[in-house]
Amino acid sequence: MERVERLWIGHAGAPTLLVRPALCGDQAEPMTASDDRGVQPRLADLDEGALVAACLAGTRDAFDVIVERHRRSVYQLCYRFVSNHEDAADLAQEVFLRAYRGLKNFKGQATLGTWLYRIGVNACLNRLSSRPPATESLETSEPVVDHHPDAASRLLQDERARRVRAAIARLPKKQRATLILRVYHDMSHQEIATIVGSSVGAVKANFFHALRNLKRILAQDPV
After folding, report:
1. In this structure, are 95 and 18 located in the same domain?
2. pLDDT exceeds cutoff 90 at 142
3. Both 180 and 88 in a single domain?
4. Are 55 and 124 part of one and the same domain?
C-alpha cells in the first residue's frame, strides 16, 4: 500500500520538504543501476531519468533526491501564486505527492523540472479557484538591488513588492501563470507553453495582456 511521510523544516527562508516513500515501486528491496564496472553509483549522482527508474524499481531514497533537487523552485513557484508561506508550503507538498503518485506517467518528453512545474501550476490554479489565499506584506525572496538601503528605501521597496503581488493576484489565471513563469522563473515562451498546455502564440498573447493589465492596475493605485 502506498504510504508517504512528509515533513516541512524551515531553512533559509524556504522550507525543506522531506518525502519518505515507503515503497516507490513493486520491488521490496532498494535497487540502483550499476555502471560498466558493476559499481552502484550514489543516488545523488544519477540523472533525472535514472532517478525516476530507480524510484519505480523500488529504491526508497530516490524520490527524496528528486525532492531535494526541486523543492526550492517548486516552493517559490507556489509562493508566487499564493503570496504566503503557509499556503505555499501546503501546495508544494501537494505537488510532490501528486508527482510521487504519478511518477509512472513521466515519459521524459520534457525535463522532470518542467513536469513538476506543470503539476505545480495546475495545483495553484485549482487552489485559487477554490479559495483566495491570505497574503503577507513582506516578500523575503524579492531581489535587493541596493545591498545597503536605508530604512526609508527598504519600506518603499517592501510596499512596492506588496503592490505588485496584489496586482498580479488580480490578473486572470492564465495571464497570472504566464507572467509568473516568464518574469520570476525566466522561462521561454516554448517552456511556458509546455507547462500550461497551450500554443506559443497564446503564451505570447497572455504575456502581453498580463503586462498591459498589470500596468493599468498599478496606475489605479499609485504610491
Report:
1. yes
2. no
3. no
4. yes
136 in a structural domain: no
Counted residue by residue, the chain has a size of: 223
Provide the mean pLDDT of the chain: 77
Residue 64's domain spans which residues? 4-30+44-130
219 burial via Cβ count (<10 Å: 0-12, 13-18, 19+)? exposed
Domain contains 138: no
How many distinct structural domains can be found in the chain?
2
CB-CB neighbours of 94 under 10 Å: 18
What pLDDT band is residue 108 in, cutting at 50, 70 and 90?
A: confident
H-run or E-run covering 17: strand 14-21
**Cα–Cα distance for residue pair 163/182, rounded to 1 Å:** 19
Give the SS3 label for residue 150: coil
Strand partners of residue 5: 20
Strand (E) positions, 73-112?
none
Domain shared by 17 and 112, yes or no: yes
Query: pLDDT of 31-86, one tens digit each?
Result: 444 454 444 568 888 888 899 999 999 887 999 999 999 999 999 999 999 988 99
Determine the pLDDT at residue 155. Answer: 57
Q: Which residues contact 12 (CB under 8 A, 6 or more apart)?
A: none
Question: Residue 9: helix, strand or coil by DSSP?
Answer: strand
